[in-house]
């Protein structure tokens, strides 16, 4: 899923400074799962904003709403009757949310209430880790099912580099060296010699480097 | 001959080669490059010029290489993949060879996170193995990575680095083999302090015949003090400094530690001269260029052979 982090309250407050009526808009997708942007967090953020704005003698009107998903126009459409009532919408969906809302409603300023961080998964409750950089051409089966593009600090396809030590990446003892894990996994499967293949330069056209990406599925289009 | 560099000539004539290293200044002070180069002239076959070493911005490696050439020394142009994509890497090697640079060392590069600009965006479009393959293709096939012909061909003696002490150890020789398969003509190792581990690494490399496909130069960096040894042991990733090295330095008077460090380096080189598969030494006396001669002379490696 897409993982996010709440922005500090002060940053959100300064974004919406001078805006009278504010809507905090949540999403029931990924950000609900990672506990930063669902209905519960909408409630928490809205009341924190109310309290802070009241204290500062500012208009405390902050309303709440949570959509099924903000990355789908049919759900964004639910805002059609209300969007114009607000002077600011704070979206706490991933970065797609504020953009979809902003594109659909031309006049309302939309502010991101979270920082979208990465595509990852939960290692344990409250701990998430990056797993994919959506390079558009998945190769993990060649590396023991582990991704050297997203998880090696240098995206090395022919690693491990000379900085790998005791299972850690050269950048920090807190960051596991994925190449250490790749070697161990391939070794456990008796496939270590496959890693001796020299991987040629990667085609990044399918990644973000090829420009913003778009996917059309004719079979699903109406 | 791949490029006919001095380093290549000395190695292919079967001599025990010596390379040095010089870190360009954190500024555009050409005089400093000349000054440091003066200490290395005539005592090494060629001098590695580091490329934004430890991710700290310095004078461009190719430019310092050119200053060296003008001073009558031969450079090894170090190139890291951290800072440039394949377009910039290929453009730079064309420019560098046009200036007379013949040796290049292909590296992935230290991550920028602990350098002078940790906020920077890194590149890592190619990795060091892919960079070797790219330059080999430019040299041998006269083609860019996109298979289009290039005008002229860069004659290059291709180098790579190898760290026998990084983990996982079981893959270190395989990684060396990959670099050789990709195009490495010579390899310089990380500085060696753990001789037992290095002997094991070399044995594995020799058993696979890698020393016959590529010249392996053993890395030597003299310890200046106990402090340096402890720092390296603790903080430099992929560095293996055994307790015995620290102990030996501790065993002498503080003022004698530098001399002891040099003595240890000389002893190491004596051993490398006898070690199967080792074709030479790479003496990295960074910011200590003025003492490189003591080491090389002390190890009986002067004068350097002249090969035409
Ligand atoms: S190879 Fe690409 S698509 Fe597959 S996990 Fe890595 S970044 Fe994601
Ligand atoms: S230490 Fe491992 S994860 Fe870190 S850059 Fe090197 S190979 Fe990649």
UniProtKB/TrEMBL annotation, chain A:
Zinc among keywords: yes
Coiled coil: none
Keyword terms: Metal-binding, Zinc, Zinc-finger
One annotated GO molecular function: zinc ion binding
InterPro entries, per database record: DUF5981 (IPR022026)
Domain of life: Bacteria
Pfam families reported in the protein's UniProt record: DUF5981
Residue span(s) of domain Methylene-tetrahydrofolate reductase C-terminal-like: 111-204
Entry-linked PANTHER family: 5,10-METHYLENETETRAHYDROFOLATE REDUCTASE, METHYLENE-TETRAHYDROFOLATE REDUCTASE C-TERMINAL DOMAIN-CONTAINING PROTEIN
Protein name: Zinc-finger protein
Automatic annotation (TrEMBL), chain B:
Cofactor(s) it depends on: FAD
Gene3D superfamilies, A to Z: 3.20.20.220
Family matches, as CDD domains: MTHFR (cd00537)
Reactions performed catalytically: (6S)-5-methyl-5,6,7,8-tetrahydrofolate + NAD(+) = (6R)-5,10-methylene-5,6,7,8-tetrahydrofolate + NADH + H(+)
Pathway listed: One-carbon metabolism; tetrahydrofolate interconversion; Amino-acid biosynthesis; L-methionine biosynthesis via de novo pathway
Domain of life: Bacteria
UniProt keyword Aminoacyl-tRNA synthetase present: no
GO molecular function: FAD binding; methylenetetrahydrofolate reductase (NADH) activity
Entry GO CC: cytosol
InterPro entries membership: FAD-linked_oxidoreductase-like, Mehydrof_redctse-like
Any one GO biological process: tetrahydrofolate interconversion
Keywords of the record: FAD, Flavoprotein, Oxidoreductase
Pfam families: MTHFR
Record-stated family: Belongs to the methylenetetrahydrofolate reductase family.
Protein name: Methylenetetrahydrofolate reductase
Species the sequence originates in: Desulfoferula mesophila
